[in-house]
UniProtKB/TrEMBL annotation, chain A:
Membrane association type: Lipid-anchor
Organism (species): Diatraea saccharalis
Sorted UniProt keywords: GTP-binding, Lipoprotein, Membrane, Nucleotide-binding, Prenylation
Subcellular location per the Swiss-Prot or TrEMBL entry: Endomembrane system
Residue ranges with Polar residues bias: 199-210
InterPro entries: P-loop_NTPase, Small_GTP-bd, Small_GTPase, Small_GTPase_Rab
Family: Belongs to the small GTPase superfamily. Rab family.
Keyword check for GTP-binding: yes
GO molecular function terms attached to this record: GTP binding; GTPase activity
Record protein name field: Ras-related protein Rab-8A
Main location: membrane
TrEMBL record, chain B:
Entry-linked PROSITE patterns: TBC_RABGAP (PS50086)
Organism: Diatraea saccharalis (sugarcane borer)
Cited SUPFAM superfamilies: Ypt/Rab-GAP domain of gyp1p (SSF47923)
Entries under InterPro entries matching the protein: Rab-GAP-TBC_dom (IPR000195), Rab-GAP_TBC_sf (IPR035969)
Residue ranges constituting the Rab-GAP TBC domain according to the UniProt record: 1-220
Protein name per the record: Rab-GAP TBC domain-containing protein
Length: 210, 314
């Protein structure tokens, strides 16, 4: 089977229970929204291949259960992630406050150079809003992380969020690739088994140029 | 289908007069018709175990008509809202009954199926839920940091290595060669976690699902792991052709469809695996590894009836 993509990116969605992680992913992978509440059991994933600046980029997106008791099990999926979306619910103050805890979780469990993005979801529910857009932006500035308000229901900024995160990761990978490999390789379908035996500390040095 | 749940329903002391099965039959879904006392029950249990392992499961006349419904579940459509409130009450009642476990994501799947089988009797559903979580499933499956579940996931990986060595070796290999190495979680985990937590509710069509539940209730929780073995076994060819962890995950989408379509063939495979005598050893090994054994504690449950009545007043 020939490789059908140029890059494989692994993304992870985290945040409190009920903020809409699964709905965001469902919107992105199936372009649909389902009002019924089916909570994520442990961990799940979806795959979508996108076209990014002329490259086929395969996204393997991991969705996690927000409930505290799943924390130990889900953190095993942090380490291999190249990008993490931190999701809160703009109608739920507590979920916003907990973003700091989720960031601490990333610092403890993910690779140091993981790309991050904060998503304030359910921005269509303006009458129930508890967290202003400005506060979201302020938090993002504080942590130097990109931020966007989304609505999985109205399909607002969901594509934008995934494409932005994917583009940032891809740019970082290409930069790293150039730095370590001044002579540009064409094709770049050269990942060999022996290259994989290194134990790098970051995902950048094991980036998937497949 | 799900004769065992039906008999549990009868045992739960439902006030509704409802005799499932042929009243003239010598052997029915209710224990006690084979003779009195413990011996009679043991005989009945033995017979039920044999029957549940038959290629078609328990005989047609044991089955409840309303369970043949396919497609839309109880919890969508016009009646859906009312039924969802019912579901919430059962879950709340369980959370009150066992505060240590409380509500665990995934419980809604279990409770929905139980409610459907128990013909929407909330108090009977609660009893079955309590029985399932506290008497049938291993300790600590849903509580705290899910250590019982984590131990079972690890024990299962060992069982897979013993029973389906070629497949297990391949999955281990794909995990190892995954980018960078050492960062890819064990490949079966994402699936086994969901299977064990929902007792296959999201992966099997209703008929096969209830047959697996019958086996779990009759033969014990090792059936959960035998079912996982059967699924991986059926997907073996597909997985062996994957050359990376990414290809493995990609091919599992089609794998889920294949399992859904397998139906009775899957249950037959579960039965063919028989038993897993090595399981208690593997489980205790991993349970110990995951967390040191806690001192025995006396469970402090409120009376079941009070949990039920609290739930109905919510």
């Amino acid at each position: 089977m020939a490789k059908t993509y140029d890059y494989l990116l692994k993304l992870l969605l985290i945040g409190d229970s009920g903020v809409g992680k699964t709905s965001i992913l469902f919107r992105f992978s199936e372009d649909a929204f389902n009002i019924s509440f089916i909570s994520t059991i442990g961990i799940d994933f979806k795959i979508r291949t996108i076209d990014l600046d002329g490259k086929k980029v395969k996204l393997q997106i991991w969705d996690t259960a927000g409930q505290e008791r799943f924390r130990t099990i889900t953190t095993a999926y942090y380490r291999g992630s190249m990008g993490i979306m931190l999701v809160y619910d703009v109608t739920n103050e507590k979920s916003f406050e907990n973003i700091k805890n989720w960031i601490r979780n990333i610092e403890e469990n993910a690779s140091a150079d993981v790309e991050k993005m904060i998503l304030g979801n359910k921005c269509d529910l303006d009458s129930k809003r508890q967290v202003s857009k400005e506060r979201g932006e302020q938090l993002a500035i504080e942590y130097q992380i990109k931020f966007v308000e989304t609505s999985a229901k109205d399909s607002l900024n969901v594509e934008y969020a995934f494409f932005t995160l994917a583009r940032d990761i891809k740019a970082k990978m290409e930069k790293k690739q150039e730095a370590s490999n001044p002579t540009p390789r064409s094709g770049a379908h050269q990942l060999r088994a022996n290259e994989q035996q290194r134990k790098p500390t970051s995902w950048l040095s094991r980036c998937n140029l497949l | 289908m799900s004769a065992i749940l039906n008999s549990l329903r009868n045992l739960a002391g439902s006030s509704r007069a409802n005799s499932a099965g042929d009243p003239g039959a010598k052997f029915g879904i209710t224990p006690g018709e084979e003779g009195s006392g413990e011996g009679g029950y043991a005989e009945w249990l033995h017979a039920m175990r044999l029957v549940a392992r038959l290629p078609a499961g328990v005989p047609q006349h044991f089955r409840r008509k309303d369970l043949h419904r396919t497609g839309c579940s109880l919890f969508c459509g016009t009646e859906g809202r009312e039924n969802q409130a019912m579901l919430r009450r059962v879950l709340l009642a369980y959370a009150r009954w066992n505060k240590d476990v409380g509500y665990c994501q995934g419980f809604n799947m279990l409770a929905a199926i139980i409610l459907e089988v128990m013909e929407k009797s909330e108090s009977d559903s609660l009893k079955v839920m309590v029985y399932l979580v506290e008497a049938v499933l291993p300790e600590g499956y849903f509580a705290d940091d899910l250590r019982g579940l984590s131990a079972d996931m690890a024990a299962f990986r060992d069982l897979l290595r013993l029973r389906l060595p070629r497949l297990a070796h391949h999955m281990d290999h794909l995990q190892r060669i995954s980018d960078g190495g050492g960062v890819e979680p064990p490949l079966p985990d994402v699936f086994t976690m969901q299977w064990f937590l929902t007792l296959y509710a999201t992966w099997l069509p209703r008929d096969s699902l209830l047959r697996v539940w019958d086996l779990v209730l009759l033969d014990g929780n090792e059936v959960l792991l035998l079912t996982a073995l059967a699924i991986w076994d059926l997907l073996q060819d597909r997985i062996l052709s994957a050359r990376s962890a990414d290809e493995f995950y990609s091919c599992m989408g089609g794998g889920a469809g294949a399992i859904w379509d397998a139906g009775d063939a899957l249950v037959a495979r579960v039965v063919a695996f028989g038993s897993a005598p090595e399981l208690p050893r593997l489980r205790s090994l991993h349970r110990y590894r995951v967390t040191p054994p806690a001192p025995p504690s006396v469970p402090s449950h409120p009376p079941l009836q009070s949990a039920v009545s609290q739930s109905t007043h919510t």
